[in-house]
Structure formats: C-alpha cells, structure tokens
Amino acid sequence: MYTVETREITFAEAIREALAEEMRRDSSVFIIGEDVAEAGTPFKVLLGLAQEFGVGRVIDTPISEPGFTGIAVGAAMTGMRPVVDIMFGDFITLTMDQMVNQAAKIHYMSGGRFKVPMVMRTTLGATRRSAAQHSQSLHALFSHIPGLKVVLPSTPYDAKGLLKSAIRDDNPVAFFEDKMMFRVKGPVPAEDYTIPLGVADIKRTGTDITLVGTSSMVQVALAAADRLAESGISAEVVDPRTTYPLDKTALIESAKKTSRAIVIDEGYNRYGVTAEIASVIAEGAFYYLDAPVLRMGAMDVPIPFSPALEDLTVPTPESVFRAATALCGRN
Amino acid sequence: MSKTTDSSSQNERFSSSGESPETDWVRFYLQMLRIRMFEEQVNELYTSARMPGLAHLYIGQEAVAVGVCEALRNDDYITSTHRGHGHCLAKGGSIDLMFAELLGKEAGYCRGKGGSMHIADQQKGNLGANAIVGGSTGIATGAALSAQMRKTDQVSVCFFGEGALGQGLLYEVMNMASIWKLPVIYVCENNMYNEYTHFRETTAGEIKARPEAFGIPAEVGDGQNVRAVYAAASRAVERARQGLGPYFLQFDTYRYHGHYVGDVDRAYYRSKQEEREWITKRDPLQLHATWLVEEGLAKRDDLEKMRTRIEAEISAGVEFATQTPFPDASEVGENVYS
Asked: Which of A51, A130, B76, B118 is at a distance of 20 to 30 A from B18, taking alpha carbons?
C-alpha cells in the first residue's frame, strides 16, 4: 500500500494536504467557516491555506452556522464545491434545517435536477475537558438522514484519501474528525490517491472476535486487540470508515468468520451507530454467531466536565478488553 | 469557471405582441393573467379532488412575481416559497410541467417527487420553492456568493413572505450579504398574514428597519402596482449587477384566498370587508388593465381575448398532466444520491 514516497505526517496535515490539493485541482472548491482564514481554525488544521488561496477562497464568516451552511447549499447548487467548517461537532445542531431539510433533500425533491456537492467538516470526541457542549459525537444524527453521506476517518492516511473523495462527491457529505487525533502521525503517500466512500478497512486481522471501531474508537479497539492477543484471543478490527454508505458486506463477513462481534463508537449508545451496525451484523450473520452482538457507545449522559467523570463516559481499551473476554467466555 | 452564455432577457422570449417597445407593459398583464388563471385552475383541481396534497394560491399577489421577474435575465436566480406557483411562471416556467408536477406525474418538473411546494426549474434559474418558511434565504444568498466567485454578473432574488421575518436565518444571511456585497435581492411579500395571524401581532418594529440595520438599502412599494414593483426591482437589480451589494424590497400585497385552499373560514383572522376592499379596489390585474387602456396601449377587447389564449394553454396543460403517467414504483429509490 505504501511506497518509498510515504512520509509520516499528522492527521491535521493530512486534512490540510487534501484540501490544498483539491483546491489546486478544482477552482470551484472553497472553504467557508469561522476563523478558517488567517487563524486556520482553533485547531490550526487550515494554517497556510489562506496564504496560498487567498481569503476569497478561504472565507471567514460571522458566528452564524445556519447562515453560512445555507449559503454553502446555494453555492453548491450553482456550480461551486464548498467545504463548510463547523468548529465543534456539537454545533451541527444549529445547521440541522440546512443540512436535513435542504442539502439532503434537494437532489431528490428536484427529481435529480439539482445537485448539492458540499462537504461539512466538523469534529467529534470527548476527553478534552470541554464539557457537554463541546464534546459530543453526533454523527448518528446525520447518518439517519437519507441524502447525506457520513465519513469517519481514523488515520491520517484515511483522512486524506476520504476527504478528497468527499470533495469530489456530488452529494452533501458530513466529515467528522476526532479532535484528539489531529496531532497523531501516520504514513501517508506523497502521491495523489483517494479512498472510495463506502469501503471498510480491516485494521487488524483476527479469528476469535470482531471489534468494529469507528473514528476515535479504532485506536481503542486496536489497543484492546493487543491486550486480547496477550490473553490468547485473536481479535479482528474492522473500520467501516463511513456510516453511510455502510460496507455491510465487510461487517457481516468478518462476523461470520469470527462468530462474535462488539461495535464500538463514540456516539451515544442509544439509537446510535452502534445499534445500527449491531443490527446489520445480527441480521446478516445470525446463524454464524456464538454470542449476542454487543454495543459500546458513549454513556447516555451529557458529557460531564470533571475529568473524574468524563473519562467514565467513553469506551476504553480496558472496557473493550473486559467485554471481549467475557463474550469469548474467558472471564 | 466560465461565465454563462444564456443571458437573453425574459422579455425577448415571451413577447405578447411581437413588437418590441421599450417596456412591453401588455406582456406584464399577460403574465399576471397567466398566473391568475393557472391558480384558478389549481383551485378547481384541488377542490374537485384531482390534485393531491396542499395548494397555497398566489392569487392577489401576481404583480410582485411578475414585476420582479420581468427585471431579471433568464440566467438570474430566484428562490421561492410554499406559495410559489406565481414565481415559477413569472420566471418562465412551463404550464405543462407545472401541472404534471402538481398531479405527481413522472413528466413533472421534479418527476413527481417535489409537488406544489418544491417546484424547481433549473433551465430558468429557479432554485426551487421551499416549504420551510425562510428556508431558502441561505440558498438565494449562496447563489449570489457563487455568482460573485464565478465572476458572472448574475443576480439572485430571494422571495419570501413577511412570515419569514420571524426566522433567524434571514438575519444571518443578510448580515453576510451586506459584508460581502453579494448580488442578492431580498423580496419580502407582505400579504399581512403569517398563516392565520396578522403580522402586526408577530412583528415588532418596522420591516424596513431590519435590512437597514445591516446597511442594506430598503424600499417599501405597492405590491399591487406592477409598474412600481418593476421599477423598484430594476433599481435593485442594476445595483446588484454593478457589484454594489444586496437590496431589500418590501411589497405590500394581499392573498385573496386562504393560507391554503381548505382555509375557507377566515372570519376569525380577517374580515370579509377587508377582503372585498382589496379585491375590488386594489386588484393588480384590474389596476394595470385600466392603466393600459387609459394610456392607449391596449384595448379592453384585446385584454379579454388573452383569456381565451391562456385558457387554451391551461386546458392543454391539464390534459397533458392528466394523461401522462405516474412515476414507476422503481422511481421511489432513485435520486436519493447523485
């Protein structure tokens, strides 16, 4: 997969490279959001883009998420490819009408005559001590809506390849980045590549249990798999990479092979991504399963501020390890 | 991106007489009459249970759509509302494709998937009617940003009713339109009723003060006088095309029918007397017809003859829509994604 040209770059650098390359390739691509230009966002993900492309294509907005999201929808319908920056994933609730009632439905309501090729980049993830309104993982909300696609990259390599595909896609795509991952490094080829939306990636092969992890929970699943290996349990880690389109075949095939599955996602557990994926596996691999499919999402509480409480709300390698050993009958 | 080449004015394509006077005022009457008669037919289809869903009639407000759209080019954009048939027709929409859409047919503007409240017409720059009040204000402003970024001189018109003044989105996008000098014209059709509530009960202060707070020039005009609407819209369009930024037009008008076709018992929110006053004294078609005759631009007989011509168009449209098939069941899952 990697060539001699592969370098180690951070998740944030991978995002920045994807944006810069797509903006060089296609003059209709532009960035719009709060403090995206000179500031490069509070996470500094976009540093340097305004210098290269000018503030006419890296557009700073007022603090008006519904307004600039709606403006992006109109621009997308008329020949542009906006990339909307929503600083914290919690703020997507402000954009709901524009995303759910407008962007997601315009192609269908117009009988296919209009397209809305836009990307909404935003964040997810807790444990940053940011409390209940800056810590949620709300990707399930958009995953629920026909007409939207939802991307959850878990490595710098995936982030770059998936973002380029998202920008080239003719549909509205929500792209969730784990804000704890921006400084994580990983190998990324120097040459141009894309990763198609809707193709899962086996992050680690195994035979005894399938750990389905998304976004921030992929590293948690991999760390749990290391510990499980020490206990003689071989865990396979599957990263769907997109919740829509969802690579059902890869999920079902892995569960058929291992006969057990745990789904780990940082969104709230109830009515969430874990429920959907667990149900896909239960329906598709029922006769191959030796145990019920487990769901491990964020605890169903508003994310608390105190570190002593916040860390309890998110699955950890330890909690996944314990659940997996129990599921494999090895308490 | 290249500048679009289709910039023929609507006037060139819909001339009423074949002559080319400076402003074809007779054509303005024809366009208003077309909307009036289209909506009368919709009322008929709906009350005879031939049309499914909801119908929000534009009757009474025709001068606004026609006066504004006559000031636009074919490649200019509009966004419309749940009360949107008039905007679509005024922007050059096809009667056949509209009726087909209203009846949920495959041949309709949206292949039967949008219906009355979502008609869109890409060929004519109609970015779509919207069933979320104020929901299209972002789209219209975004189309203006797009035109500015692509360096075309297209303008974008955002039609909305005074009910949308309660929606925050409008104020967010007016703020950005003003900061960025976007070529967008906000057209507030004040028909005085937010559904079943008089706007004075829902709207603090003056309407015009809202855009002015953002530094957007605003005018209040008589929405029943098509020439006044056209003159104001032309000023706004010219300014926007020159890159001087957004404009806000408030047109006071009146919907003769209820909020939707079934809203017949209206006495609890407005009087019969008030309705009669508007219909008899301030009807946009009558006012314009009288002016045309007084100015010697048309004869009463000629204006009456237009009815026959439009009746033929409309019955052909209804006939087409009735005969043409419903979408195949396989269509239900198509066009969710591009």
From this structure: B76
Q: Give the residue numbers of A marked as catalytic.
A: 134
All residues of chain B having their beta carbon less than 8 Å from the beta carbon of residue A30 are: 149
Residue A83 three-state SS? strand
Domain membership flag for residue A196: no
Residue at A127 is within a domain: yes
What's the pTM value of the predicted model, to 2 decimals? 0.95
In-domain check, residue A194: no
- Give the residue on B whose Cα is nearest the Cα of A110: B110
B26 closest CA partner among B222, B299, B284, B309: B299
pLDDT of residue A175: 98
**Mean pLDDT, residues B19-28 taken together:** 76
Where residue A127 sits, what CATH number does that domain have? Answer: 3.40.50.970
Contact (Cβ atoms closer than 8 angstroms) between residue B63 and residue B288: yes
- A169-A18-A2 Cα angle (round to 5): 105
**Inter-chain contacts counted by CB atoms under 8 A, chains A and B:** 148
Do A286 and A158 lie in a common domain?
no
Phi, then psi, of B318 in degrees rounded to 5: -65, -40
Q: How many domains does chain A contain in total?
A: 2
In terms of domains, do A43 and A135 share one?
A: yes
Mean pLDDT of the region A199-217? 98
Q: What is the domain-level CATH number for residue A290?
A: 3.40.50.920
Closest residue of B to A244, CA-based? B337
B264 by DSSP, 3-state: which? coil
Q: pLDDT tens for residues A21-45?
A: 999 999 999 999 999 999 999 999 9
DSSP code per residue over B72-140:
SBTTSEEE--SS-HHHHHHTT--HHHHHHHHTT-TTSTTTTSS-GGG--BGGGTB----SSTTTTHHHH
pLDDT 10s digits, A180-192: 999 999 999 999 9
Q: Please state, in angstroms and rounded to a whole number, the distance separating the CA atoms of residues A115 and B111.
A: 15
Residue whose entry in the numeric block shows the structure tokens 């829902």: B202
Does residue A231 belong to the interface with chain B, where contact is any CB pair within 8 Å? no
